[in-house]
Amino acid sequence: MTDTRDRLLDAATDVLLRDGAQALTLDAVARQAQVSKGGLLYHFPSKQALVAGMVDRLVGHFDAALTAAGETPGAATRVYLQASVEPRNTATGAAADRATAALFAASIVDPDALRPLREVYQAWQRRLENDGIDPAVATAVRLAVDGWWLSRLVDLAPPAPGLHERVYVLLTNLIDGS
Amino acid sequence: MTDTRDRLLDAATDVLLRDGAQALTLDAVARQAQVSKGGLLYHFPSKQALVAGMVDRLVGHFDAALTAAGETPGAATRVYLQASVEPRNTATGAAADRATAALFAASIVDPDALRPLREVYQAWQRRLENDGIDPAVATAVRLAVDGWWLSRLVDLAPPAPGLHERVYVLLTNLIDGS
DNA sequence: CGGAGTGTACCGGCCAGACGGTACAGTAGC
DNA sequence: GCTACTGTACCGTCTGGCCGGTACACTCCG
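Output (structure tokens, whole complex):
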């Protein structure tokens, strides 16, 4: 069963988001996943392998979203916006948080683990630059989205609900009107 | 001399930006600052105190910038944009990198150390929302800027030089035209 | 004037504990 | 008998933090 594998990956992000990066230890992850430490090391022979696994999963999601985006102008930019930021402030955005967690974990434990992510991200950026709309608009929207989930992750003054929607509309209009 | 204190703070950000979060140890910081470990611990009795010091300094800069911004419409938003992102892609943006480093260090070592920063940031966000321009525009610009320095810090597909300027112009126009 | 004492800034060795990782014997299910 | 674990004992290293010193400037008192 790859079930346990996924549970371990989930557990790692849970620990990271709940207790902070400092607390991301093999013991803590194993405990969270209700797996023995031996079991964890059976699936991920090292901590690096664990965070590499987190990044891999993230890369997979990215790739899927990238290919799933349509061909109409602004399609990719819109997908990127919607994937990270719901129109309404549902405050969950679980997928985006998971992404950030993986990013975070990697940059702490093993910056090299980010390499595959960098490549997919670069591909995504290229896709945005050729999205049938002004590349500057697409890039600005992307950066805003990145800033958005960062602000939520670190809880640095994320836009209040009312403003949240207005910013979302603004970005959407930006995409449409270019 | 508070000279040594500042040198230690600088050393901490240097180590973090150069060698990654993993390498941010008391020994490494002391070595970088050419101070003994005892000397470090004289100024900062714990690692938490060290990152708290980093955040404090950042908060100070924020406060200064906040009061220094003028009163004309969009002044604060423009300051925020210019502080983090040079019009040309000078690739340095040292101040912004320093900010990120402090943020990073805090979220790893002691998430609670971010509290004072959260408050200043919230104040800054309020200031942006009352900047004489559409609050949604101000917020969107802010988020884009946040995303910008994040992309540079983690090296996740930061906009290429040519695009960099176009995005900068786009954001500036957004501020002016609202 | 001189000696004693006080506070600041810093040195550097050391230790306890945490953490990553190994090893290995055992087991439940297919 | 193989996969997918469990459970535990253990090791070496790294790291945060403590502590006993030292150098030195300054001050207070007789």
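Residues 1, 4, 35-39, 42-43 of chain A lie near DNA strand D (CB under 10 Å from a C1').
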